[in-house]
Amino acid sequence: MPEVASQTLDFVGRELNVTLAEARTALENYVEQPDNINLLERCTQELHQVQGVLRVLEIYGAALLAEEMEQVASYLLQTASERKSQAESLDALMRAMVQLPSYLERVLAGGRDLALVLLPLLNDLRAVRGSALLSEGTLLLLNLKSDKQAQPVAAAPGEPPLTVEQWARRLRARFQVGLIGWIRGERLEQNLDILAAVAQKLEQIATRQPVFQLWWVTGAVIEALLRSARLLVEDEYLSRQTRCQRPGSSHVQRFR
Q1: Phi-psi bin for 151: left (phi > 0), alpha (psi -120 to 50), beta?
Q2: Residue 164's closest CA among 218, 199, 207, 123?
Q3: For the whole model, what pTM was predicted?
Q4: Topology annotation, domain 3-142+232-243
Q5: With contact defined as beta carbons under 8 Å apart, do 152 and 204 qualify?
Q6: DSSP H helical ranges for 117-187
Q7: Element of type H or E holding 239
Q8: Which of 18, 71, 87, 116 is most buried by its number of CB atoms within 10 A?
Q9: What is the mean pLDDT of each run of 10 residues along the chain (256 residues)?
């Protein structure tokens, strides 16, 4: 990436984080001041701005999450008089407020934009509004096309100059061990790491676009599986934390 483009992304990333922080603060304040509808309106406006910037940057997974967050904020505005029914919506939106900056940071640092990783959270945001849930297949379609072209990496010092076919035969047994272990539910992260390493190697040495495309998508799916497993753990923790923020709780605390 050219230096100027990199600096621009860094600047935009910082501005997005500032805007998200303002939206989160407004939401936290609304939890403590449920009569102040202006706080919800501000949160909705900030999220709308974030969504627009993300679409311009073509970070579609993050933009989709920001859109769902904005929809929930608007839903909260519409149901402001029904405070008892807002608990689940506030819970889901607060978790998204925490996860979006982390996801965005990873993508801006060069990671894949994997909407599939966000599926559980996206569906939580849709469920609280009574909207139809998204499927894995729907989100996978967002990741099926890579604009990158195959760029074979030269063999490392001491590494044999093998063809793609030779590498595939060499790595096949390792890939099968990782796949079988994952299917059996044994040492999930370790076996997914094995599959990810094989996919990354074959992606790096691919000389033809169809082969590169195959392993780019495979790597994206494996990465999504890894991140989904880790996000589930984070979701459980954050859910416990946001319950303490609900009006009437004796343990109200603010995220920092």
Answers
A1: beta
A2: 207
A3: 0.64
A4: Four Helix Bundle (Hemerythrin (Met), subunit A) (1.20.120)
A5: yes
A6: 119-127, 136-140, 164-183
A7: helix 209-243
A8: 116
A9: 58 91 96 93 96 89 94 92 81 94 88 83 94 81 58 72 87 92 85 91 86 82 74 59 54 39
